[in-house]
Here is the input.
Amino acid sequence: MLNVDFYRPIVEFLALYMGSNTEVILCDTENILLIENSMDEERFEGAPIGEMQQALIQNPECRNIPYNINYRTLSKTGEKVRSATLFIRDANGTLEGLLTVNQCVGELVRLRNMMDMLISGEQDHNVLRKSKHGSSPKQSYEALTLSVTEIIDRVLEEATIRFGAPPNRLTANEKISTIREMDSRGVFLAKGSVNEVADKLGSSKATIYRYLHQLETKQ
Here is the structure.
């Protein structure tokens, strides 16, 4: 059983140091024990742990590692969040709880997008950049009228053509490539997108989160 009083000053320290845009959560394997700067009204002391904590606890790859750092999640409002979790175990190695830090980076993402726009321009009107056949270069931005589901389906159609196999038969590397393309088109900024992509790729949510983490660490 976790000693809540031992961890309380640690949780408070991290929250104060990281700032109000950083949520700090201490939980056991079932419920939230301490929380500072909650990003969701459904996350409070005594509430059940969330889907992400459940996925980490159930993921076999997390059973023998001390922590998972710089994985990506989304807040309830759809803001991009950079997260890290420390696995707390007893002397016998049995998991007792998790200490999670969630830092909202939505403002930084918007700042990066603004910098990209200032550097590259909002639209490409360079008439010198033509394909071999003289047609306009392929646009790298999705039409604003497309829903997240339509973007996911479009990327999966492209992957099926490129790899010659349906989405649920793609190899791990092919799925990672597909996830990279979806991420570049902003798919994972939408709530519920991980569930939808996992279903259509025939993978678990934990696997999709792992692929996103792999892409993040390679950047």
Notes: The helical segments are 4-18, 51-58, 106-120, 148-163, 172-184, 193-201, 205-218. The longest strand covers residues 80-89. Residues 148-163 form the longest helix (16 residues). Confidence is low (pLDDT under 50) at residues 128-145.
